[in-house]
Structures are given as structure tokens and as C-alpha cells.
Write a structure and sequence with these properties.
Length: 278
């Protein structure tokens, strides 16, 4: 378990681990060779910096840790490699935490809420994963293990949780209802300042989110066509962004068909080198 990682964190990831990873994840194997090379290097750095913990006796093997690392690093592939005044560079996006807690199956999380009468309710909620600001990422291995098959539906648990981490780097919007916005450089979507970039972000994300919520309501209450994107994305704008990131990274063509209005936001953020400003 986790032998290569423990012993040789400073050496490149060996073919014996990397090639089977590509064979098991078609959405990684389809990347152009130079992109795979950088993903391999990002994954090495990720494995050197992060600590994996298996819960309930789950043993984390090298290939399990690498599968998580490579998928976590995929959204960083085209972001600036060096930090700028505006944004972290490379793995700096994930610099606020070290731990990755992997559960064999669903995670039962203790929750507490206070109702209008001031009564505290404690309950347990089944989760596939979780990302907390400044805290560890929690993942359910059974879901991570099915990443290749679930990519056909445009879903990916690891990308979902790490998309939350990326957004959290920018902090909450002034209006907390809007959720997190990743740090954006001036020039994003043609904006003239970092502040205008945030406004441009929400000007695209919010209407797409509201349109999606309407589709979910129509599907659920009026027997409309089911949405392609997981209806969970209608829970909050943070969830909409994280679910959209899953689809963008593993089913880009279908995502572009479903959400053409979001492509400038996603390409502008995740592929700043190739994006065309509006
Ligand atoms: Zn989420």
C-alpha cells in the first residue's frame, strides 16, 4: 500500500503506475501528450504534499492515491503554472489543506441545525464527498473507483470536490447567496479590474444557475424531461459550479451543447491562455 508514494516522493511517477492509470481513465488517456506530461508532474507534486487517510480500515494503495491526485489536478492543467498577483499558481490552488480522507463507501457526516424555535437538531447525512474551507477533502472510494464509467454521464466526484476548493480560494461573494467565486485576474471576460471580473463571473453563472433550477422544477413537478446535469446542481450556486466543472472536464462537447452560455466562463477561467474574450 502506498509504497512508491512513501519512499520516492521526489522522483517522477513510474510508468508502472502512470500507464495503468491512463488505461483505467479514458478522459485522461485522451489528453494530448504534452498535457499528460504536465498532469503527471502536477500529480507527483500533489502526492508529495498531501496526506491520504483511509477510513474504516480502507488501505490506500499507490494506484488509489494516484487516481485521486490526477483527477484533482486535471482542473489545474491549463491554469497559470506560476502564481500571479491575482491567482495562485500550480498546486497553490490546493494550498489551504493537506488531508484527504477516503472512505470505503458513503460518508455519514454529523450535522447540526437550529430551527426557527431555537431547537438544535442533530442528524447524520450520507455524503459521497465533502470539501471544507481550510479543511480536508473527504471522498468515497466506491465513487472514485467508478470515475471512468461515470464520465459517460458527465459526473466526477473528485473534480466536484476540488472545484469547491478552487472556488473557495476566492472567498465568499459579498452576497453570501451567490457563494464562492475563485480569484480572477483583471481581463477575465474582458473585465478591466479584478472587481469587474467577479461581476462578469456572476453575470454568466447566475442566469445559467437560475435557468437550470427552472428546468429541475419543471422536470420534478411537471414531469418535464430530466436534466442532463445532476439535479443536485440546483441546490445552490456553489453546487451548480462544482457539478458544471465535472461535466466540463469529462464531457466537454456535451457540456458545451447543454450550456453554451457558460463556455466563455469555463474556458475563460480554466483555459485562460486559449480563451477568447467576449
Ligand atoms: Zn458539492
Amino acid at each position: 500500500m502506498w509504497d512508491w508514494l512513501r519512499a520516492k516522493r521526489q522522483t517522477p511517477i513510474p510508468d508502472a503506475l502512470w500507464l495503468p492509470l491512463l488505461a483505467r481513465h479514458r478522459f485522461l488517456a485522451e489528453l494530448p501528450a504534452p498535457d499528460q506530461l504536465y498532469l503527471r508532474e502536477l500529480s507527483r507534486q500533489f502526492l508529495a504534499q498531501k496526506e491520504f487517510h483511509g477510513a474504516h480500515g480502507l488501505q490506500i494503495s499507490d494506484s488509489m492515491a494516484l487516481a485521486i491526485a490526477a483527477q484533482a489536478c486535471l482542473p489545474l492543467l491549463y491554469l497559470p503554472r506560476k502564481a500571479t498577483r491575482w491567482q495562485p499558481g500550480g498546486l497553490g490552488w490546493y494550498g489551504d489543506f493537506v488531508g484527504i480522507n477516503v472512505y470505503p463507501g458513503e460518508v455519514l457526516a454529523g450535522r447540526e441545525s437550529v430551527d426557527d424555535a431555537g431547537v438544535v437538531h442533530r442528524y447524520r447525512e450520507a455524503l459521497l464527498g465533502e470539501a471544507m474551507e481550510g479543511g480536508p477533502v473527504v471522498l468515497s472510494w466506491v465513487d472514485v473507483a467508478h470515475a471512468d464509467a461515470s464520465a459517460a454521464q458527465g459526473t466526477n466526484l473528485v473534480i466536484h470536490e476540488f472545484a469547491h476548493k478552487i472556488a473557495m480560494q476566492g472567498g465568499l461573494a459579498d452576497d453570501a447567496e451567490l457563494g464562492y467565486c475563485p480569484p480572477l485576474p483583471p481581463g477575465f471576460l474582458g473585465s478591466r479590474s479584478a472587481r469587474a471580473a467577479v461581476a462578469a463571473w456572476y453575470a454568466l453563472l447566475q442566469p445559467a444557475y437560475e435557468g437550470f433550477r427552472e428546468q429541475v422544477i419543471i422536470a420534478e413537478r411537471f414531469s418535464g424531461a430530466p436534466t442532463w446535469l445532476d439535479p443536485y446542481a440546483a441546490e445552490a450556486m456553489d453546487e451548480f459550479f462544482a457539478v458544471a466543472c465535472e461535466a466540463y472536464w469529462v464531457q466537454r462537447a456535451r457540456f458545451a451543447q447543454e450550456f453554451p452560455a457558460l463556455m466563455p466562463l469555463m474556458d475563460g477561467f480554466f483555459r485562460p491562455g486559449s480563451a477568447v474574450n467576449l
